[in-house]
């Protein structure tokens, strides 16, 4: 299977290579409706848009849409659940062939998504469960994210250590990461969680830093901090630095950004590893999944984008300073072989 | 305005008369909050590890430094009978601006700070202008300013946070860095009792608290601001340039908020996208709790500083006892309600 995929991947690359020479002839090899991509209209209906993750996600969606040559409309509800549902209707009225629903509330989106499907529109949902068999779910696997980071923590620190844990309940990805943390605590009884804290008060890093400072003062024997969200990790790192404990505490987190890379690369940084899915890749996969549906192919119901473990050592050894270099030097981070049939143009190929 | 008039106005704002002997209830009103704070500190010292140390005293101060500075600024607007909802977003805008100046434009620490202070002054002037000359009610004018700034700070980077090596909207990579001098504002520590103990932000908080306290209580300008707040018409009839006093209150508030933003950027080492609403709410809470301190029943700088400290002690102590974040909001709310009862119910009865 792996070999077949690899061959497919090479084939794709070869095709793209050919396309740079062949140009127009390549478009003719595309399945309908992408043989005339200019006539294909798709819409991205967003619930969340503020912040680096969502910015990168959008750039991935745009890049893949451009590679396919389709017409992309972006509708942004800015965290207004009712408006997001209205925007799906708006997209239907615009006459789009495909819709990507990016986040949102199950309650408000379920019916709106069904209306779109009823109108003959292909729909893909990212990180919102609309409970519809005809709508593939694109997900970044939060459980895998947490698992990768925690496995690294156990590799570095052995099976028993005193841990601090940063968590805020009620936020879906954090809840899924929390499940993995609970499993690990059960599996390794030597992990002793002596403190749990966390807050979403913004700026999050600043508020978490204040909390973490108290926690490490009350529990100076903590050696591992599991902060499965990069804003949390950033806050913990500030507190650990301020307390002068960066040599005795190790921070394991999830997600990554350019400023996170800088923080991990600082001399004696306590932030040693993070597991992350590239939001740009998730954006690309969302569009590819939709494209497969439009071409009449089956992408499967759950399209999972695998995460990558990024350690401080990786960043130092390969001299990675920002997200672009991370993508260039850790190829598994820049591209996921997910929803990638042979005809699909790869937006990363130059 | 002559001395007699000032006295009358003081009486109207509820300044205490130290002439007669204090009853027990008056003692409770006057010192109740300070006793509560002391009790809280003793409680945490007894029941948590590591609370009773100079380090923890310092980080409690550090945790409230930024909200405290914002709270001192908003106190100035409360004194003239106004309100400033824009302080949180002024702080985050200053944070983004300083990051932008250094990381994207390659400027130095001094330029970055200058730009921030300038933003504070300009926002204060616009707020004041809207309120005084356009007759927009203070809450509405500063609410508008808040939204304006939350949007504005995102426009230059199209919603991205600012950090060295970030990709700009046009595809280029920002190569500037935070200057070490600027980062020192967030990371340098002065020797005090122990080496490397007191961070810059705490020193700034204490200095600003003393300055604004002296300014409001002991300068003519400050007393006149109280006069404007207690009875604008009377102050006007007494010949005070009421508009100028009001506008300067908003400028003070804007500048304090931008100083808070500078310290925030120096601590985080990047320009974080944030609305600053939590900063706003926490600092307003501190200023309102301050009403109750020493039975002042009016906005005052000393009370604001104590109010901020009170919230800080409580939150850091609870975190050390492993209390989850939602109990902390609950407790914060409880303290505020009790403080408001102190201010309004108990103090009113006295008169």
CATH T-level topology of the largest domain in chain A: Rossmann fold
The unreliable regions of chain B are: 1-15
Query: Helical proportion of chain A?
Result: 40-55%
CA distance, first residue to last residue of chain B? 25 Å
Average the pLDDT over all residues of chain B and give the rounded result: 85
Helical element count of chain B?
14
User: What's the helix-strand series of chain A?
Assistant: HHEHEHEHEEHEHEHEHEHEHEEHHH
Spatial strand sequence of the major β-sheet of chain A: 2-1-3-4-5-11
Oligomer kind: heterodimer
**Cα separation of the termini of chain A:** 27 Å
- CATH architecture of the largest domain in chain A, by name, is 3-Layer(aba) Sandwich
Q: How does the overall form of chain A come out from the CA principal axes?
A: elongated
Q: Provide a count of the helices of chain A.
A: 14
Largest sheet geometry of chain B: 2 strands, antiparallel
Taking the sheet with the most strands of chain A, its summary is: 6 strands, parallel
Strand content of chain A: 15-25%
Structural class of chain B: mainly alpha
Return the domain count of chain B.
1
Low-confidence stretches of chain A: 14-27
> Number of domains in the coordinates of chain A?
2
Strands of chain A, count: 12
How would you describe this protein?
The complex is a heterodimer of chains A (350) and B (351). Chain A has 350 residues and is α/β, with parallel strands linked by helices. Chain A folds into two domains: 2-140 and 279-306, 3-Layer(aba) Sandwich (Rossmann fold), CATH 3.40.50; 142-276, Rossmann fold (3-Layer(aba) Sandwich), CATH 3.40.50. Chain A contains 14 helices and twelve strands. Chain A has helices at residues 2-22, 24-28, 52-68, 81-94, 106-118, 142-157, 172-187, 204-218, 230-242, 258-265, 279-294, 312-317, 323-329, 331-334; strands spanning 41-46, 71-76, 98-102, 122-126, 137-140, 161-166, 191-197, 224-227, 250-254, 271-276, 302-305, 308-311. In chain A, helix 3 runs parallel beside helix 11 (279-294). Chain A is elongated, with a radius of gyration of 22 Å. Chain A starts with a helix and ends in a 16-residue tail after the last helix. Chain B has helices at 3-12, 24-47, 54-79, 87-104, 109-132, 138-152, 180-187, 200-218, 220-230, 232-237, 242-268, 277-290, 301-320, 325-350; strands at residues 189-192, 194-199. By secondary structure, chain B is mostly helical. Chain B has a two-stranded antiparallel sheet with strand order 1-2. In chain B, helix 3 packs across helix 12 and helix 12 runs parallel beside helix 14. The chains are: A alpha/beta (350), B mainly alpha (351). The interface between A and B is large, with 46 and 49 residues.
């Amino acid at each position: 299977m792996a070999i077949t995929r690899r061959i497919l991947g090479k084939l794709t690359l070869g095709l793209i290579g050919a396309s740079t020479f062949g140009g127009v002839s390549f478009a003719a090899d595309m399945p309908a409706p992408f043989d005339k991509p200019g006539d294909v209209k798709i819409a991205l209906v967003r619930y969340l848009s503020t912040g680096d993750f969502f910015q990168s996600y959008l750039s991935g969606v745009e890049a893949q849409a451009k590679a396919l040559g389709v017409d992309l409309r972006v509708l942004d509800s800015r965290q207004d659940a009712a408006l997001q549902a209205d925007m799906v209707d708006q997209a239907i009225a615009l006459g789009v062939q495909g819709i990507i629903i990016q986040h949102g509330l199950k309650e408000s989106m379920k019916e709106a998504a069904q209306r779109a499907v009823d109108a003959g529109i292909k729909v893909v949902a990212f990180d919102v469960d609309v409970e519809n068999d005809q709508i593939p779910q694109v997900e970044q696997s939060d459980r895998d994210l947490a698992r990768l980071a925690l496995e690294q923590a156990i590799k570095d620190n052995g099976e028993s250590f005193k841990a601090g844990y940063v968590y805020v309940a009620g936020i879906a990805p954090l809840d899924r990461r929390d499940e993995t943390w609970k499993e690990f605590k059960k599996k390794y009884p030597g992990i002793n969680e002596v403190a749990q804290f966390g807050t979403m008060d913004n700026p999050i890093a600043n508020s978490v830093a204040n909390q973490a400072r108290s926690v490490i003062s009350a529990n100076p024997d903590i050696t591992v901090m599991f902060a499965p969200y990069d804003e949390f990790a950033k806050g913990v790192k500030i507190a650990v630095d301020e307390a002068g404990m960066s040599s005795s505490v190790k921070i394991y987190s999830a997600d990554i950004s350019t400023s996170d890379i800088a923080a991990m690369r600082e001399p004696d940084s306590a932030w040693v590893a993070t597991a992350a899915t590239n939001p740009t890749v998730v954006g690309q996969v969302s569009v590819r999944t939709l494209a497969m549906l439009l071409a009449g192919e089956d992408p499967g119901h759950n399209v999972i984008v695998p995460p990558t473990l990024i350690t401080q050592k990786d960043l130092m050894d390969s001299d990675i300073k920002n997200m672009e270099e991370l993508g260039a030097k850790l190829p598994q981070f820049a591209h996921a072989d997910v929803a990638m049939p042979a005809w699909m143009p790869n937006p990363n190929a130059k | 305005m002559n001395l007699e008039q000032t006295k009358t106005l003081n009486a109207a704002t509820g300044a205490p008369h130290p002439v007669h002997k204090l009853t027990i209830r008056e003692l409770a009103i006057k010192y109740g909050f300070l006793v509560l704070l002391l009790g809280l500190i003793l409680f945490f010292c007894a029941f948590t590890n590591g609370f009773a140390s100079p380090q923890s005293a310092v980080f409690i101060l550090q945790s409230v430094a930024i909200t405290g500075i914002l709270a001192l600024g908003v106190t100035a607007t409360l004194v003239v009978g106004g309100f400033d909802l824009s302080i949180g977003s002024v702080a985050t805008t200053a944070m983004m601006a300083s990051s932008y100046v250094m990381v994207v434009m390659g400027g130095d620490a001094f330029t970055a700070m200058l730009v921030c202070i300038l933003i504070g002054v300009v926002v204060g002037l616009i707020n004041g202008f809207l309120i005084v000359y356009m007759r927009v009610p203070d809450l509405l004018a500063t609410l508008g300013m808040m939204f304006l700034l939350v949007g504005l700070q995102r426009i230059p980077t199209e919603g991205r946070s600012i950090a060295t090596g970030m990709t700009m909207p046009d595809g280029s990579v920002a190569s500037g860095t935070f200057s070490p001098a600027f980062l020192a504002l967030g990371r340098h520590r002065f020797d005090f009792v122990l080496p490397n103990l007191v961070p810059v932000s705490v020193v700034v908080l204490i200095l600003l608290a003393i300055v604004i306290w002296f300014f409001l209580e002991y300068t003519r300008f400050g007393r006149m601001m109280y006069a404007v707040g207690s009875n604008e018409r009377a102050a006007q009839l007494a010949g005070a340039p009421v508009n100028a006093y009001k506008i300067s209150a908003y400028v003070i508030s804007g500048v304090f908020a931008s100083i808070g933003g500078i310290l925030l950027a120096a601590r985080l080492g990047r320009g974080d996208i944030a609305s600053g609403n939590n900063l706003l709410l926490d600092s307003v809470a501190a200023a309102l709790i301050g009403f109750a301190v020493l039975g002042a029943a009016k906005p005052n700088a000393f009370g604001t500083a104590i109010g901020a400290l009170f919230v800080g002690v409580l939150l850091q102590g609870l975190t050390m006892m492993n209390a989850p974040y939602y109990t902390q909001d609950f407790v914060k709310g409880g303290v505020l309600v009790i403080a408001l009862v102190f201010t309004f119910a108990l103090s009113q009865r006295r008169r």
